[in-house]
Amino acid sequence: YLWHVLPQKYVVGVWPENLEVLWIALIGFLMAVLVGLSVQVMGEPGDLAYTIKCVHDKAYISMSHVLPMVAASQFSILGGGSLGPEAPLVAICAALGGHMSRKVFKQKNRNVVRKHTLMGMAGALSAFFGCPLGGSLFALEVNSRFGIEYFEHMIEAIFCGEVCVAVFRALSGLPIDAIWTIQTPPLASASPFQLLVGAFIGLLGAGIAALFSAFHFKVMDIFDYFGLLDNRIAVARALLGSVVIVGLGMVVPHTMFWGEWEFQTVATMGPASELDHIWPTRGLFGFEMDTWGRCLIVAFTKLVAKFIFPFFAAGAAFGRAFTIWFPSVSVSLACLSFAAGINVAITRTSLATPLILCYLAGEQNAISGVLAASLVSLFATSYMPFIKTQIVRKDLDSSLFYLAEDEPLVHSSSEANLELQKKQQEQADEEEHEVL
């Protein structure tokens, strides 16, 4: 509505044609202000890193983060920003799963509550991607840096993902099918050479992700230096970020939005007029992705302040640039392998990512090469943690020998305070005894 209906009513034929591109700035800045206001008024929405931290520490996410996340993510999505639906859905459904576990099923065992939280995450990603196995594995893998550590919850999480896909797709009327067509016909078969190519591209993707990581933390350091991370000035922070996002979007329209539907246009090097969401699609200068240099421009600008699906779209742009230089390489393999290499280096989801990408592209014969790209990227970036809360499971050594009575319990805030006071009193009594 904001990007097609309103401008057709109030902009086309009213504004001078060369000024229509200002609609991007108008909507982008307006939504940025609303994002900032939602944070100031409703509180911190959290992010994927916070969700992972809660899974490890508390086993659940507080429901107080749900409404702020809904508001902030909706305004960001409407504004064409970098925050897509996948990370907010994970946080929201994780909070709902943990809430149901504690309040409805009255669970106290921390690992049981964690299982229900992970089931919520798996259901959200499976329904969103339309890929039950890939979405569920993503929810499990993203909590750790090297494989699935909460392995005992895998079957329940995958089952929840399967149920959620069926329910969501039935209610929404959406098919469970591929949404991209990168090349026609798709890859007819796989070969050992494709595995080698995928592994090499995965290494390149890991290098690109390392550049992205360094850039991200440098920007965060600058924001911290100027005090912009304080939520009391969230509006100013959002506006500053939107200057970059909107500015790039006005020059390179391919960079706007999170990339789920833009991926098709980028991977096929289609005309900008085929971009689904943005209006006007020509931008300031009529940018078209028609040379290897412009492919790289789209690729690098798509990485600015973006996460998960934008990595996929950026990978598609890098893949197209790569195939212009090496035309013998399959376009599907190049695009999907770059996407996997970048995403796995950041999110550490080496099994889920190739499943999701190859499913969405309908390229089952590319999965061996894309998996090679994912695994090489995972190993190459083993010592480059991006999401700091991805830590080793604390009870990993004893997790194979499960004893319910040894499991810590989940406490309400009042119970937790009483428990803390009790421990402090016991410590004080021991110190007093030692003094006497």
Count up the helices. Answer: 17
Question: What portion of residues is helical?
Answer: 55-70%
**Would you tell me the structural class of the helices and strands?**
mainly alpha
Instruction: Report the major sheet.
Output: none
Unreliable sequence segments: none
Number of separate strands: 0
Apparent shape: globular
Q: Gap between N and C termini, in Å?
A: 75 Å
Order of SSEs: HHHHHHHHHHHHHHHHH
Radius of gyration: 23 Å
User: For the residues shown, what is the average pLDDT?
Assistant: 91
Beta strand %: under 5%
SSE blueprint and pairings:
Elements (H helix, E strand, L loop, with lengths): L4 H6 L11 H21 L5 H10 L8 H13 L7 H19 L5 H20 L2 H10 L12 H19 L19 H34 L8 H18 L10 H6 L24 H11 L6 H17 L5 H17 L4 H10 L5 H14 L32 H23 L1
Helix pairs in contact: 2-4, 2-10, 4-5, 5-6, 6-7, 6-8, 7-8, 7-15, 9-14, 9-16, 12-13, 13-14, 14-15, 14-16, 15-16
Q: Which key features would you list for this structure?
A:
436 residues, 17 helices, mainly alpha
Task: Please characterize this protein's 3D structure.
- The chain contains 17 helices and no strands.
- The chain is globular and about 75 Å long.
- The mean pLDDT is 91.
- It has helices at 5-10, 22-42, 48-57, 66-78, 86-104, 110-129, 132-141, 154-172, 192-225, 234-251, 262-267, 292-302, 309-325, 331-347, 352-361, 367-380, 413-435.
- Helix 2 (22-42) packs antiparallel against helix 4 (66-78).
- It is mostly helical.
